[in-house]
TrEMBL record:
It comes from the Eukaryota. GO terms for molecular function: hydrolase activity, acting on acid anhydrides, in phosphorus-containing anhydrides; metal ion binding. Keywords: Hydrolase, Magnesium, Manganese, Metal-binding. It comes from Penicilliopsis zonata CBS 506.65. This is Nudix hydrolase domain-containing protein.
């Protein structure tokens, strides 16, 4: 007879709080990091900078409190700390001043290593650079919150943020050059890997180029990254022709921010836990995005009911769960129309 005890489903893993930054460059390109092949999470994938929160980021509500998943100062501080550790890009201000904190590349590289090795906290290191320095948390724009599905052995509750790097001062109508002016160093920090600890490469590319690379299997993008890049590309890369003015770059950013604050709920407050909906005619999984996950069941949190992600998960080596291939974003209505044809 079957063992009923062993056949019972295990309780889903408790999702670990984490945060990521979708960093927009002065050229309206997006920063992605190429994770090492041996990474315990998303090996070999291209991801937004981010990671798990730590005690230095601040406290969160208890595990069973739905507010644990809400945007909060600890998520924001953790996002900027992880961005610094993983890419070397520092987003901090000189206290109440609107001036961004400018730190030499040598000092930044030393600081990120010391923070990663827990020799010093992010806050302590910032204060050593400027007594009133604070992470620029106010400039982060929430852009969806993702909770890993319950069938995954490792689960995360991840707050995504947009951050727009400022434009350097421009002469005439020429597009961003390489010459800096005083007070604009913060706009052109160059991302670097972390020496191969977690990241092998860090670079900015247009959102549309990252999507092209994923479709041609030159890069691995998991559903959250693919969806958000898909949405961003409709605004920042809506015209394939080269952008001729900073005014146009600013206009596209404004339209993107307006979109992020639109919808019901707005994209700033969408909570998404991808859920298997059906199989498409070509054998790919169709993931619904309207479920906020079991931790938020009974709350007023909602995901997106209009779009779905279509993906084929391909197992590679010893990796559990498989890597996403043939990823696309389509309307939910089109998926069901396909069934009727």
């Amino acid at each position: 007879m079957p063992n009923n005890t062993s056949s019972k489903s295990k309780k889903p893993a408790i999702p670990r709080p984490s945060a990521s930054v979708i960093l927009v460059s002065p050229r309206n390109e997006i920063l992605l990091l190429h994770r090492v092949q041996t990474s315990s999470s998303f090996p070999s994938a291209h991801v937004f900078p981010g990671g798990n929160l730590s005690s230095q980021d601040g406290d969160l509500p208890s595990i069973d409190d739905p507010k644990r998943h809400d945007d909060a100062p600890c998520y924001r501080r953790g996002a900027l700390r992880e961005l610094f550790e993983e890419s070397g890009i520092l987003l901090a201000k000189e206290g109440s001043s609107s001036r961004m904190l400018a730190v030499s590349e040598t000092a930044r590289q030393h600081g990120r290593r010391a923070i990663h090795q827990q020799e010093v906290t992010f806050e302590q290191w910032l204060k050593s650079q400027h007594a009133a320095a604070e992470p620029d948390t106010e400039s982060l724009i929430p852009f969806t919150h993702w909770i890993t599905p319950i069938n995954s052995p490792k689960r995360y509750t991840t707050q995504m943020y947009l951050y727009m790097l400022p434009f350097p001062q421009e002469l005439d109508r020429q597009l961003l050059g390489d010459v800096l002016v005083e007070g604009q160093q913060e706009a052109v920090q160059t991302p670097t890997d972390d020496g191969g600890i977690e990241v092998t490469e860090a670079r900015f590319l247009p959102a549309s180029e990252w999507l092209r690379m994923a479709r041609s299997e030159e890069a691995i993008l998991f559903p959250p990254q693919f969806l958000l890049l898909h949405l961003i590309s409709q605004f920042l890369d809506r015209d394939p022709r080269p952008v001729e003015s900073v005014e146009e770059l600013k206009k596209r950013r404004t339209e993107l921010v307006e979109f992020v604050h639109s919808g019901n709920p707005p994209w700033t407050h969408k909570f998404i836990s991808p859920k298997m909906l059906k199989m498409s005619q070509d054998g790919r999984s169709v993931l619904a995005l309207d479920d906020p996950g079991p931790e938020l069941k009974g709350s007023d949190k909602k995901g997106d009911a209009d779009l779905v992600i279509v993906v084929r998960f391909q197992r590679e080596g010893m990796q559990k769960g498989g890597s996403p291939r043939e990823v696309d974003v389509v309307s939910r209505s089109d998926v069901f129309r396909e069934t009727k044809i």
